[in-house]
Amino acid sequence: MEYIKEVFAQYDRKCIRVYQAYNPMIAKEAVALQRFGESFNVNRMTWIKPSFLWMMYRSNWGTKKNQECILALDLDRSKFDGLLEKAVLTSPDAACYTGEQWEKAFDETTVYCQWDPDRTINGNAMNRAAIQIGLKGSTLRDFLDSSICHIKDFTPLVRKWNAQRKSGKLDAKNIPTEKIYPVKNKAIRNRLNMR
């Protein structure tokens, strides 16, 4: 199946929303401080996901171990755009790179891009892809220091929505709605195989 590869997200003129799932210690600290604190390990890669339903699929609606708390992070759009400029696909794409070019770019970057089938409320694959962006090293530290405008705990809403989903009563209009985020730079679109 050929997937639509665009960034689908909730955003306004200033911020774009991404989601992450953490254990309660990391999540509570992040919400209280409005930044990630001592419980967060800066030496590991972290992945941000603009698709709410992909995050629900990945965390099984916040029921997987160490993914019980769902956080919504509102990021400065210029910082998010900067991540896209640095991103390299996690697997080579012949349209973008030769194998050797990709290996060099992959080894040198601190931002990774992965596309996975986006999901419906019930976890079925859609004909569009959801982007995940992995951050490590200096880019992760910069992200933590200067990219996050606001952190909101979505855990209570996720639990409510999951209960409604299980009973067949969840209305898709009640969960976050996402639209195509404008990525107009042709070099970025080509490098991330967007279409």
State the main characteristics.
195 residues, 7 helices, single chain, 3-stranded antiparallel β-sheet, alpha+beta
Describe this structure in words.
The chain is an alpha+beta fold. It has helices at residues 24-33, 52-59, 77-86, 99-108, 137-146, 155-166, 186-191, and strands at residues 8-9, 15-22, 46-48, 69-76, 88-89, 111-119, 125-135, 148-153, 179-180. Strands 3-7-6-5 form a four-stranded mixed sheet. It has a three-stranded antiparallel sheet with strand order 2-4-8. A two-stranded antiparallel ribbon has the order 1-9. Strand 5 (88-89), helix 4 and strand 6 form a beta-alpha-beta unit. The protein starts with 7 loop residues before the first strand and ends with a helix.
Strands, helices and their partners?
Blueprint: E1 8-9, E2 15-22, H1 24-33, E3 46-48, H2 52-59, E4 69-76, H3 77-86, E5 88-89, H4 99-108, E6 111-119, E7 125-135, H5 137-146, E8 148-153, H6 155-166, E9 179-180, H7 186-191
Parallel strand pairs: 5-6
Antiparallel strand pairs: 1-9, 2-4, 3-7, 4-8, 6-7
Please estimate the helix content. Answer: 25-40%
Shape: globular
Strand order of the largest sheet: 3-7-6-5
Topology, number of strands: 9
CA gyration radius, whole angstroms? 17 Å
Order of helix and strand elements from N to C terminus: EEHEHEHEHEEHEHEH
Query: What is the first-to-last residue Cα distance?
Result: 14 Å
The unreliable regions are none
Largest sheet: 4 strands, mixed
Report the sheet-strand fraction.
25-35%
Query: How would you classify the helix and strand content by structural class?
Result: alpha+beta
Question: What would the average pLDDT be, to the nearest integer?
Answer: 94
* Number of contiguous helices: 7
